[in-house]
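hey
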């Protein structure tokens, strides 16, 4: 495989959510794009100028965004290298370079108006923004509220499909049926939800489960082996569903992108956000929730279990057992830390809930566990 230094990032259906690094060379006829791969030889694709659509993009509108219809679907190229952009402008025919120059001019006008607004607002606006950022999460919440659910779903689905493509997914059997029954009972109690939840069982001895923005949830068989009842797994699942419903994952992503990104979203400049979020790639799976987010997912999770007539004490017993025996070793606890105070808070909340007689699941939990193998689990 030939070694080269990528100078651009390309997105497309055949690439991961983080995009594919590539080398872009400007030729007389158009562009030659070389993609690198860990498993196959590098592949080059030549694209004529007549096949390209060009605009200025990126969060700061400082990137050249090139799109074309490739053999495996639409591809989008983000160019930021000034030498490549300069060569593109010089070589591109008038109808292509003209569209880019128009977009660039609009960007310059927007930036000019923005500078005037900021100079008028001055330190007052900046102090307000910084105060909101450092004293509370209000600014992040405002930014998240301006992001359409459709964008959130697109981001989550892209990362979800990419992750599952490298995993052994269980598509049928008692474990899948059991998770399906739990999911159906809980989602039936979520009126007017904008999400269509998709829960997948992945065959792995790691004790873990996670939810991605947009309603995509993964449960590992290691967690199902560790649980002593279906109610315990339902407790974890309810917790994860409520991270989605409260948009906690999206909040963490937006905050990780930084202050200026949040300000841009709040003031209506959302172009390039999805591309930047896609570049987070695997970071989506390791974002840690804050204490308030964990508490909110706990409490709303308990309430959801009760509405679904699933014994909510299963959530508490499972969390307590992991906390006592496996603190610092179980992967689920690395992103969902359990403390004694948190467990006591759950018990107090459970005691305050109106009494409802739980309805048992239709499956036999021991048979579900037998269908996924032995009780041995892997501790990282």
């Amino acid at each position: 495989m030939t070694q080269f230094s990528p100078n651009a990032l390309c997105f497309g259906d055949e690439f991961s959510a983080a995009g594919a690094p590539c080398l872009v060379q400007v030729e007389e006829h158009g562009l030659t794009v070389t993609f690198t791969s860990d498993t196959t030889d590098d592949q080059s694709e030549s694209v004529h100028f007549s096949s390209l659509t060009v605009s200025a993009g990126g969060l700061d509108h400082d990137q050249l965004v090139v799109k074309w219809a490739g053999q495996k679907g639409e591809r989008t190229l983000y160019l930021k290298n000034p030498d490549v952009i300069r060569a593109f402008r010089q070589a591109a025919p008038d109808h292509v370079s003209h569209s880019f120059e128009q977009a660039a001019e609009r960007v310059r006008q927007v930036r000019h108006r923005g500078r005037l607004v900021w100079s008028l607002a001055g330190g007052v606006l900046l102090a307000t923004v910084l105060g909101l950022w450092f004293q509370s999460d209000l600014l992040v919440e405002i930014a998240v509220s301006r992001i359409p659910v459709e964008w959130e779903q697109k981001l989550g689905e892209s990362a979800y499909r990419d992750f599952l493509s490298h995993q052994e997914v269980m598509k049928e059997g008692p474990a899948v049926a059991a998770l399906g029954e739990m999911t159906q009972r809980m989602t039936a109690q979520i009126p007017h939800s904008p999400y269509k939840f998709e829960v997948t069982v992945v065959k792995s001895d790691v004790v873990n489960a996670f939810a991605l923005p947009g309603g995509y949830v993964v449960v590992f068989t290691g967690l199902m082996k560790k649980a002593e009842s279906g109610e315990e797994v339902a407790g974890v699942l309810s917790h994860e569903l409520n991270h989605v419903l409260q948009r906690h994952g999206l909040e963490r992503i937006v905050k990780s992108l930084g202050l200026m990104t949040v300000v841009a979203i709040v003031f209506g400049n959302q172009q390039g956000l999805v591309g930047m979020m896609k570049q987070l790639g695997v970071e989506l799976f390791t974002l840690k929730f804050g204490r308030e987010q964990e508490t909110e997912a706990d409490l709303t999770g308990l309430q959801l279990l009760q509405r679904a007539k699933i014994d909510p004490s299963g959530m508490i017993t499972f969390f307590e057992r992991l906390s006592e025996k496996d603190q610092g070793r179980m992967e689920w606890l690395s992103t969902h830390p359990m403390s004694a105070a948190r467990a006591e808070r759950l018990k107090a909340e459970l005691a305050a809930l109106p009494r409802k007689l739980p309805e048992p699941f239709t499956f036999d939990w021991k048979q579900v566990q037998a269908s996924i193998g032995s009780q041995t689990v892997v501790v990282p």
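The chain has 15 helices and eleven strands. The chain has two domains: 8-102, 149-371.
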